[in-house]
Design brief:
Elements (H helix, E strand, L loop, with lengths): L5 H13 L24 E6 L4 H10 L6 E8 L2 H14 L11 E3 L3 H6 L7 E4 L6 H11 L2 E5 L6 H16 L4 E4 L6 H11 L19 H7 L3
Parallel strand pairs: 1-2, 1-4, 2-3, 4-5, 5-6
Helix pairs in contact: 2-3, 5-6
Length: about 230
């Protein structure tokens, strides 16, 4: 993220112009608004939802060079997933990981216990399945926490409407909320969205989205069985 490539520049420009993202949770070394807890220059974070992208998002946050960042609690349903991520993070960021056994929370109420370790202005990272997302987001707003959450955010229409309502509540409290959607920085997709909203392609009756993934020749050969 330190490079001066067009993609990096546009990403920084986007973050600066919105001022609404808790991007410290995922976008290392990007110019972001101050989100430190009151009375301290340390950025304290908790990870809720370990394994896969959860551990990666925590690692991104701990890589940020703008001020001290410390992971102070973790939460998950499965203890083995929590321990796996904790071991990796301790190996890579030994001086920034302070998650003793009494701040390693397991169970469906673990998200509350983890966020209870924070003060207003700190950051919660959500990488849980979308069915739980609005519950966690609601509690974070009550606690006055900034949030970074990984996609997907919801799995149905009613939950999506509820998340929009919660987003307005967060904005009213001047909380920073970031979402791991890299397509927000894709200028071609921004232009496509603008043309759709402007009605240039007529009424939309069906819309489908596809995710492109780079595949090597070796992977193609392996997948085809020869």
């Amino acid at each position: 993220m330190n490079s001066s490539t067009p993609a990096s520049a546009s990403r920084r420009e986007f973050l600066k112009s919105t001022g609404k993202l808790a991007a410290v949770s995922a976008l290392a070394n990007v110019a972001i608004p101050a989100v430190h807890a009151a009375g301290s220059d340390e950025i304290r974070i908790v990870l809720i939802g370990c394994g896969g992208r959860g551990g990666g998002a925590a690692a991104n946050a701990l890589s940020v060079k703008r001020g001290p960042v410390r992971l102070v609690a973790m939460a998950d349903i499965f203890p083995d997933r929590l321990q796996k991520d904790l071991t990796k993070l301790q190996t890579q960021f030994s001086s920034q990981v302070d998650v003793p056994p009494d701040r390693q929370f397991i169970g469906f109420d673990a998200y509350q216990k983890a966020m209870d370790c924070l003060k207003p202005g700190d950051i919660a990272i959500f990488a849980t399945p979308p069915a739980f997302r609005w519950v966690h987001f609601d509690y974070a707003i009550q606690k006055g926490l900034n949030v970074f959450m990984e996609k997907p955010l919801t799995a149905d229409g009613p939950s999506s409407k509820h998340m929009f309502s919660l987003a307005r509540d967060a904005e009213a409290k001047n909380l920073k909320v970031g979402v791991g959607l890299m397509s927000r920085h894709n200028r071609a997709m921004e232009e496509l969205a603008k043309r759709i909203h402007d009605g240039e392609i007529g009424e939309i009756i069906l819309q489908r989205g596809y995710r492109m993934q780079r595949v090597s020749r070796a992977q193609l050969k392996e997948g085809s069985g020869g």
